[in-house]
Amino acid sequence: MMKKKYAFLLYYTLLVFISWSVYSNITSRRADDGDGDDGDDDDGGDVENQIFLPLSLFTQAREIISVGKIPLVATVNKGFLELTHNWLCNTEFMHVHDQVILIATDLSAYTVISKRWPDVKVTLWEIDSKLADEQKYPSPGYRKLTLIRVKFLLALLRHGISFLQFETDCFWRRSPLARLGSYRGYDVIAAQKGNGEFADDYTPSLSVGFVFVNATSAAVEIWKEMIKRLEADVTTAWEQTILYALCKERFNGANCELFPYSAITDGVWYKMNDAMRATLAQDPDIINTNWVVGNRKKVKMLKLFKQWFVEDDRDTCGKRPLWMKSERSI
Q1: Average pLDDT rounded to a whole number, residues 58-74
Q2: Among the ranges given (150-154, 204-208, 242-246), the one the predictor scored with the smallest mean pLDDT
Q3: Which of 20, 121, 207, 276 has a Cα-to-Cα distance from 1 of 20 to 30 A?
């Protein structure tokens, strides 16, 4: 009996050691994505190694890619659970859950989502416990989460993983994924940022709330530069402003494109009158809730527009409206 016990302990110790060795190698190595990176880190190329990404994230992403699908990646924390649960109920019958990876940044979020949605891929990536609760725009905590997200996306790119980043505080009328097939040869395809002030001189910009990124050398260089600029100016710089500037100047030869605002719209939609919606975004695939600040306000807005899919018990998914049942899922 004692021999069996010691044999088990030895086996377990070796297993932990091997797992940690693989984990450390994955999080520190450079993926060969054909960009000719020589490992010179003076330009910020080593920034993704300032965080430890779990092996499961790369494994899950490659599982999705192996069946010809694109990983849909979003970060969530305890403070974002209610909105995340609503999005999962919203998209339950759209056949997209099998390609979703939710990166939970605290144990509470990971446990709740894993238990309630066992078919959704969830990776636990614990960071600063102070960031587990709601981080309102544009608080320092919000900015810190933004920088962390940009860093882990760079890690995905450098491991040759293309992805679509989205946020769960949104409403999907239908899956937008079929649209990606018409955008070939681009490094970055992003949603547009709406005209929140309805100014006559408004210049269209891009939003990072819904963005497809191809694992190309140009995209890698853009994300490295984004991190460099964000870290150089942590009080006023924003990832979407930097990304827009880099795309506009075609940084490192990058080829960027915008999704039509009529298809992927943002929280400005909630401020529009009926005439403006009919002109700019009458029947969008997605409505993001940026421009609506604070989770309580977002929930209230979604409920007001009948885009809330969670019952009062905060667990059960409610019935879909008849107009959604008539939509074709892609």
Answers
A1: 96
A2: 204-208
A3: 20
Tell me: the pLDDT tens digits for 185-214?
Answer: 899 999 998 765 554 544 567 888 899 999
Secondary structure (DSSP) of 153-205: HHHHHHTT--EEEE-SSEEESS--GGGGGG--S-SEEEEEEP-TT--TT---E
Question: CB–CB of 327/174 below 8 Å?
Answer: yes
Name the amino acid, one letter, at 287.
Answer: I
Locus of tokens 């827009």: 244
Cα–Cα nearest to 98, from 130, 135, 61, 124: 61
Q: Which residues pair with 95 in a beta bridge?
A: none
Residues 6+ apart with CB under 8 A from 87: 168, 169, 170, 171, 172
Name the token pair of 95. 């056949």
Q: Give me the amino acid identity at 207.
A: S
Gap between the Cα atoms of 19 and 327, Å rounded: 45
The C-alpha R_g of the chain, in whole angstroms, comes to: 21
Strands across the sheet with 205-213, in order?
Answer: 121-124, 100-104, 72-76, 163-166, 205-213, 188-193, 256-258
Contact 189, 258 (CB under 8 A): yes
* Strand 188-193 to 264-265 pairing: unpaired
308 pLDDT higher than 60: yes
Tell me the C-alpha distance between 212 and 120, whole Å: 20
Question: Could you tell me the pTM of the whole model?
Answer: 0.79
DSSP 89: H
- Measured distance CA(49)–CA(243) in Å, rounded: 21
Tell me, what DSSP letter sits at residue 320?
P
Higher pLDDT, 40 or 188: 188
Question: Is residue 52 very low, low, confident or very high in pLDDT (cuts 50, 70, 90)?
Answer: low
**Look-up: residue for tokens 């505080």?**
169
Residue 189 contacts residue 211 (beta carbons within 8 Å):
yes
- Distances in Å between the alpha carbon of 148 and those of 100, 206, 216? 19, 20, 21
pLDDT cut 90: percent of the chain above it: 49
